[in-house]
Design brief:
Helix content: 10-25%
Number of strands: 15
Strand content: 25-35%
Distance between the termini: 40 Å
Length: 324
């Protein structure tokens, strides 16, 4: 499978080499090197060129990105997947709780990667699993997947520039403040391969903002809306425990399973500019039943939005959003 991308060279772009131009368009250095080592990757006005070719005003640059063969190590397994959006370059899927994202020790054949391998096999398309954001096995909700090497490179750049906004809903123990920010570095717990701890001295910077939406006095649980300024492993789970409001059902940080059998965390909204068109896409996933039932008789927040919203990030956002 091969994707061809065409660019018209104008104005200030003249004088750049092909490699310099592609990096200015968001191509990663790693991808440029791979293309440089693949014959037939670059064409200027129909003629094959090297990455060192200097571009001129009015040139038409074509870049051919050959997709790798399907991930041989990922076994295709038929699954019912909740795919909310798909185009040539990316897809957004609503992952259920209990499904690991990719194969690992103890998770073989029952992961999202296995399901997508089967999905693309049936479509007779090459498949290399490239999850742009990651969710823990027991965290439900929205996950973004790049379908080719270029979209993966561009979306990874958006992650680094914090152009991909991820919002979560979490049930936590106790009644929190109406809103707040948790800023404390997070590091790996000594002797554990997976557990994280607040580590002001040696951890990586991490910040989480939250707003309380609902409170159930009978169970002493709050429903929070959260947004990450950083994306550290287990960030929400660690930060909420740090301020004295751990998530119920969290086997690592608060193994209290009275109300729910998994950490009460859901990726509810995902918004980002399309890496090729620039159109802002917004997706939402309803709160799963096991979390919704923690707040009986209360009106659950709705994050339902159309797939594209050109007003983001100005008029469509609440004052709370604009604080980020």
């Amino acid at each position: 499978m091969e994707n061809t991308f065409t660019y018209g060279i104008t104005g200030n772009e003249a004088g750049m080499t092909v490699a310099e131009y592609l990096k200015s368009r968001g191509y990663s250095s790693r991808l440029v090197v791979r293309l440089r080592n693949t014959p037939g990757s670059f064409f200027v006005d129909g003629t094959a060129v090297f990455s060192t070719c200097v571009l001129k005003d009015g040139n038409q640059l074509q870049v051919r990105v050959a997709e790798k063969r399907s991930s041989a190590a990922v076994e295709p397994v038929p699954m019912d997947l909740d795919i909310l959006y798909e185009d040539t370059h990316l897809l957004v899927v609503n992952k259920p709780a209990g499904m690991a994202v990719h194969p690992s020790q103890g998770n073989h054949g029952n992961t999202l990667a296995n399901g997508l391998a089967d999905y693309f096999r049936k479509k007779q398309e090459a498949f290399v699993f490239r999850a742009v954001n990651r969710l823990d096995k027991d965290t439900s909700g929205l996950l973004l997947v790049a379908k080719n090497g270029l979209s993966s490179s561009l979306l990874s750049g958006q992650v680094e520039r914090r152009e991909i906004c991820r919002e979560y809903l979490a049930a936590v123990c106790g009644k929190t403040d109406a809103c707040g920010t948790v800023s404390v570095p997070i590091g790996r717990k000594e002797g554990s391969a997976i557990q994280r701890i607040p580590d002001p001295d040696h951890g990586e910077a991490a910040a989480t903002r939250y707003e309380r939406l609902l409170y159930n006095k009978n169970t002493d649980l709050s429903l929070l809306r959260l947004r990450l300024e950083t994306g550290r492993t287990h960030q929400i789970r660690v930060h909420m425990k740090y301020i004295g409001h751990p998530l119920p059902g969290d086997f690592l940080y608060n193994p209290d399973f009275r109300y729910i059998r998994r950490q009460a965390l859901h990726s509810v909204r995902l918004s980002f500019p399309h890496p090729f068109t620039g159109e802002v896409l917004i997706f939402s996933a309803p709160l799963p039943e096991d979390m919704a039932c923690l707040f009986p008789g209360q009106e659950l927040p709705s994050f339902s939005r159309p797939g594209a919203d050109p007003d983001l990030p100005t008029a469509s956002l609440s004052p709370w959003d604009n604080d980020f």
